[in-house]
Design brief:
Blueprint: H1 3-12, H2 16-27, H3 36-63, H4 84-91, H5 94-97, E1 101-105, H6 112-125, E2 130-134, H7 135-148, H8 151-159, E3 163-167, H9 176-189, E4 194-199, H10 206-210, H11 213-223, E5 227-231, H12 237-244
Helix pairs in contact: 1-2, 2-3, 3-6, 7-8, 8-9, 9-11
Length: 245
């Protein structure tokens, strides 16, 4: 048997990790004490782990996060009003399995975006398809889709997304098109998937923020009443970080 031909065949079949391990066995005299079953298990595990890693990397890249947010970097100091036990329970992703929403509110700089993206990255790590949007840019995407005739395609994509994150919700006024798009998205996702909203605007003011009574009622009914709500407090995390430097 020509073992190097076997490696080339592995590469041609896009089994790069498997080929690398097998090549090390030949060139570095590794794994020589493995039985045939143990070597096969090692090869398969190496390829599986490599593919899992690439899948997760692709999900994180496609999500469009604006920062590399890691749950290990979360600041749980008391003045922030962030309960560690509550947030770590959310990091367990039960809210996705239960098709529940999360609402993060608080003043600018208190870390809402970072927490939302931590949850999004965590979802990607467990292979849930996730999309992150700044809300204003999301509505720009809607307008462009309307002009290009791809609006329904966009809605289908959003409907199939396990976790949709809308950051900086309510900072810019909503026109009629934006309100109807928000209603369409919430209707399609209701009890099917999870939405995470981060906003400086208190939930009590969202009705006025949306601007149309009937649409606001419908959106809030589908979004707010099936949500976990975290209201952050304290000074800006960005100003603290700057002062700390």
């Amino acid at each position: 048997m020509n073992e190097y031909n076997t490696i080339e065949k592995m590469k041609q079949m896009r089994m790069g990790a498997m080929a690398e391990v097998y090549h090390k066995r030949l060139t570095e005299n590794l794994y020589r004490d493995y039985s045939a079953d143990e070597l096969l298990a090692l090869l398969v595990d190496s390829e599986w782990e490599d593919r899992e890693g690439r899948t997760i990397e692709n999900l994180i890249r496609q999500a469009g996060f604006k920062q590399a947010a890691a749950s290990t970097d979360i600041d749980y100091h008391a003045s922030r009003n962030l309960d560690r036990a509550v947030f770590e329970r959310l990091l367990g992703l039960g809210f996705i399995r239960n098709r529940e929403n999360i609402i993060l509110t608080g003043a600018t700089g208190c870390g809402k975006s970072h927490l939302a993206q931590c949850l999004g990255v965590r979802a990607c790590q467990f292979r849930y398809r996730t999309l992150y949007y700044n809300t204003s840019r999301f509505f720009d995407t809607v307008r462009l889709a309307k002009l290009e005739g791809t609006y329904h395609k966009l809605l289908k994509r959003l409907e199939k997304t396990a976790v949709l994150i809308l950051d900086d919700f309510g900072l810019t006024p909503m026109d009629t098109q934006a309100r109807h798009a928000l209603m369409d998205v919430m209707e399609d996702r209701y009890e099917k998937s999870s939405t995470i909203i981060a906003s400086q605007i208190p939930v009590s003011q969202w009705h006025a923020t949306i601007g149309d009574d009937s649409i606001a009622d419908a959106v809030l009914d589908r979004l707010v009443y099936s949500s976990h709500r975290l209201e952050l407090e304290g000074e800006s995390m960005r100003s603290k970080k700057k002062l700390g430097n």
